Structure prediction request, 309 residues.
Amino acid sequence: MQMPLPVSPIRACGYSLREGSPEFDDLGLSLDEAEALGVDVVELPAYAWHLIVGGRVLTSRLADLTSHLAGRNLRYTVHGPLSINLMDLPERLPRHEAVLDAAIEIAGTIGADNLVIHTGIVREQGDDIELAYARQREALVRAGDRAAAAGLTLCVENIFRFAGARETATPLKLAGELAAIDHEAVRATLDVSHAFIRCADTRHDPIAEIAALAPYVAHLHLHDSFGRPNDLWTYHPAEAVAFGEGDLHLPIGWGSIDWQAVAEAVPLASAATAILELNPRHWREIGTQVPVLRELAERFRGVATAVAA
Prediction:
């Protein structure tokens, strides 16, 4: 009796669009390119577009964006503002939540599957880290309710310490936070390169850490690096690539991440979306990276398949 071949739980593969014009008036060309390359989904860099002012949505701009996206053979995800920080000081937190609410409105209006935000950061020396995590948990529950009402999933992305940050969640810590929240509309975006950089910073095992986050992953950010924090001064971005330094967003295969080990460590509990986040400096590789992305996506297995193996 012939056994059925295991099927990847990744439902859609695609890439993050280049930021382009802040008025997104060049978006049509980017969407043409994505359709020509045959991807299933594109991630919209809404953080770089003039869609929100003072925490409220510019409805006329959102209508323009919706018009640009209509009629395409593509699914959409949205990357929300990178500066949203749900671990910020209490007096600033309402502003972060207002911008997040606006991003949820945008993602819901265009029919996006997922809205990606970064996990929080503690910078101030006097701030209590555990209280900051508590603030983030409470804010994510509120945001999760709003995301669920808008028909989308809020995906919290693991990052690394930068710009003097005292704390940001490791993948293992983020897994614990999402378990504590236990909200069906609040899941994880696993950024593999970010995980390697964060774990190098604290000398943790990145494979064990991402395995802990795996049950909560609904969204993947895939790009290569050498898993090194920024330690050296470099004059030009090309020099950082030459030294293999920092969050490089390289084409898959250019860095040193063991992608087979990653795929084996991340059995996915539910259908996921895989997004290639390629630095625009390497955009000439986008055509050859799409099949590389699809091949990598095929290596991932669902929880039941992984247990049976």
